[in-house]
Fold:
Amino acid sequence: MTPSVTTQPSPNRRRSNWQLLMANRLAAAGLFIFGFILLVAILAPVLPMPDPNMTDQPNRLLPPLSQGHLLGTDHLGRDILSRLVWGTQISLIVGISATALAALFGSLIGLVAGYARGVTDSVLMRFVDMLMAFPYILLAIAIVAALGPGLLNALYAIALVNIPFFARNIRGVTVSIRNREFVDAARLSGKSHASILFTEVLPNVLPVIVITMSTTVGWMILETAGLSFLGLGAQPPTADLGSMLGQARAQLFTAPHASIIPGIMIFALVMSINLLGDGIRDVLDPRLRSGALDRPLSVTHIARQTTPAATLADAPVLVVDHLFTGFANGGAVTPAVRDVSFRLGKGECLGIIGESGSGKSVTALSLMGLVASPPGVITSGAVYIGGQDVLSLREHELIALRGARVAYVFQDPLTTLHPLFPVATQIAEAVMAHNQVSKRAAHQRALELMETVGIRDAADRASAYPHELSGGQRQRIGIAMALANDPDVIIADEPTTALDVTVQARILELLQDLRRERGLALLLITHDFGVVAQVCDRVAVMKNGEIVEQGETASILRAPQHDYTKRLIACVPELGEGHAFLDRVRPLFEETRL
Amino acid sequence: MSQPAVDMQNLVKTFGGGRSLFGRAASEVHAVRGISLTLQRGETLGIVGESGSGKSTLARMLVGLEHPTSGSMAIEGKPWSELASSGTRAFGRAIQYVFQDPVASLNPRKTIGDILDVPLRLLCGYDRDRRARRKQELVDAVQMPLDTLERYPHEFSGGQAQRIAIARALAAEARILVLDEPVSALDVSVQAQVLLLLQQLRDELGLSYLFISHDLAVVESISDRVAVMYLGEVVETGPAARLFAAPQHDYTRALIASAPRLTVSDSPP
Amino acid sequence: MTAYIGKRLLAAIPVILGLSIIVFLVMKLIPGDPAQALLGSYATPENVARINRALGLDRSWPEQYVIWVDNLLQGDFGRSYILNRPVLDEVIERFGATLILAGASLVICSIVGILAGIASAVRQFGWTDRIVTFFVLVGISMPAFFLGLVFILFFAVQWRLLPASGMYAVYGGGDLADLLRHLILPAGTLAIVATGVVARLTRAAMLEVLRQDFIRTARAKGLSENAVIYRHAFRAALVSVIPVLGIQAGFVLGGAVYIETVFQWPGLGQMLVKAVSTRDLLLVQGGVLVAATVYVLVNLLADVAQAMLDPRLKA
Structure:
């Protein structure tokens, strides 16, 4: 079964969020610097500094470290340190206010548009598109041109041009939340639309709003400073950091410090905010936290304490020997597959059956080192293909075996085929990965394979993209790709779970025929005893990462030995059994309630 | 017998259609094409069909989450249009819905107590004390421990989450439940337990079920009557035992032939 | 494909109309009575009314808008009374310089940003990744106008390597080499922020794609790691990077305002800043309209390029 991906707050979220943020050294540094700047800016009125606007012509353009002027003076003899502190205060106020305004209106537009959909959505988003259609700062300049230069007008302009950014982000998230079933459930519980929007949807969107704000506030400060630099924001004698820089530019060659000091200040302020913002984003984004965005290696990490024999004499085509696979979690490894052993001969079909979380898919992926790593790690055991341990091979040797001697068919062919390549190209690619043939020949071979797996008019369908085919046809393409290099073993991981029963029956039939004709060894991973009964010679039952029982399919189905197997089989309703099924299973659960 | 729990006549739902901004006709999807069905009181009506058969659209129309394009429905004798004009609360009091994905149907940022509180407050209008008592009764009815109420949805497994979702549907004290693939996302052993629970609740509370699933054996185990849907139409209806033993329609036969069975066959079908 | 391009072109028309409405409304925000402003404080009510009639200001706003658009379509953007020449002539002349600057920056940020993003994603958490991530952070935190000044101080004043300002040397320049020498500093400065944004989003897109099921399929086929990354993963990531490049076109067009001011580049941005300070509103209006229209067309190109890569979008 597919694991469902959900954004779940962990139980002790508040405390661990803070700890996580502090564990990120860059974010902690950002927080420290930003906190310091903020504190100084707030304390500006009480700090012992000269009046920032007091001019002193005789002492103009003093260098830094002058008597009484730690950072020197500007072209009017004003104390740069004092102006810097006051200017920082103004830049902060304007930048944060602009962010707050843009976030408020942008989020509101995004929430309403995403929730209401339909005409409201179109109208609001077309308006947002219009604002987006201006090259970023030009609209702000046009607005300031019309309203007249000034700090407040610059603030409005910056807020307005940033509304689309919030609106689009928040709308996207709202749409995905809106489609979740709990929104419909709340509706059926009697909640009004407004109540659903603000009490059901908003709490789930809030982290995204916070992330968006924390990653844009630095940018907003830059933008307001930019407008002031051009003389369109703060007007003399008031100075924010941008206008200090803009005014000092005329003396760039004679007194560079007057330009460089406010410039560095803007940079330090924005950099600290960005560091902190990235830290907040990393903490709040559940995918980053869970490592779901870590780059998977080409082969699962193998960390075996002992090295088993590299070869095995007189072995059947596939032997799995005491395999352990786990997921690294901090320093520890949580086991997912424990001491799994089985053998599979030519032309044979072994089913591995288990419920979700039993480790059956991880077992299948471990065989060719396809468990995503990090966090996956194979900690012990061996996998012999034709008597050779593949886990002892070097990386490129293992990669050369994939698709050649051992091929995979995966669960949902819509997500497992590349969406941007025509299907025949994808099959041809599998051919060319292992054979020195021309593109033409590979394409020809792909067409033959498509016919083999029962796709009519293969030549016509060759240039189709996966999304243009039906589910059953897509899975046939997946099988054709697996057959491309006449493998010895095909590992099919829930190959029919995403399909309707009538289609499932035909796909299973196809796999069965191919196995018979080509003497393929088939390892079939499934959760469905019906599928096992129909296809497999032998079956292994997995629970919590271990095989609890394995043997001939017929005997296991007729007379299961292990309690878990007995219970599993008993829980499968049989067609034709009718209401008798529930009466039959009731005693199983009488004693052991949840 | 009094009037049926649900009565549907010639129900049609078409998505899309109309014209786009530049005057081209958008393509139409006929999800449901003229369905007439009745659900008697105290009965479980099973609906089987494959993806694209329109079974979920039908269910969503019943609870007022979609508007039918044409046709009529009556729920406990009240016309659908009358319920629709008096708002979703009227629907919620008469008919409730259990979703396929139990985890997605619970808001991850609310406790189970908060989630169960809403229908009790808005649909039943109970005061605080009575709500607290009802919540405990509900949790008990679906065989969950009492501390369930303070916990968040992600702390539960799929089967437990589905029990909670059933408790929420029961909270509204509606007499009719629409169960849309309620056990499809669950493992077999959990599936059997949820089916047992559903049967027990129906008998104890006198509920009527519209049970939707793609799994023939599951539908057969709990339904009194079964309707088979194919491409938006009902191709066959009948008592569960008769329909599976002696299917009349070709599509029903194909469905039954395709369903995997536990009996080991030496030659594939 | 042609049908798709036609459809996108049609869809661009309402956007451009919308732009013109926004610009029109912004100009209506201007406080005060234009006729009053034109005539000064000695105006008689009769004269104000006469001027209003002459300028069409006595009509309703929709009527005024239609007349204005009609004039625009005939190439009449009005006359700049400060420069005493038609607005359109000035805008087109200036826009050429801006296009050179913005185009060069866009090319730099696309190439450098994408390469850095891929390198960073492929070696996630390695040294390459750390260095790229650090420079990206510095890039997006650095005020471009300040960085420009620092570059001038070092490259032009201290080391005398490159010219500090202008587009061509005053004496003896004028050829392509001269233009390129003048272009390096402003285009480089302008590209820095955009490069950071592109690198960051390319990295995120690559990491997202590398976790997809179809990448596992590519690996299961036995493709080499290079084929997996550069053929399968990059192709899919590019679909989400292209619209980002479209947005960056807007950033460099807008950011040109600062850079042109700092480097005295004779482009549209410098013109706009001057026009705002002299309150030459017709010039502002014309400049913003032309730049925005070009930006809409650039985004249209990005949409088409994206659809060529992703067949699912053409539906």
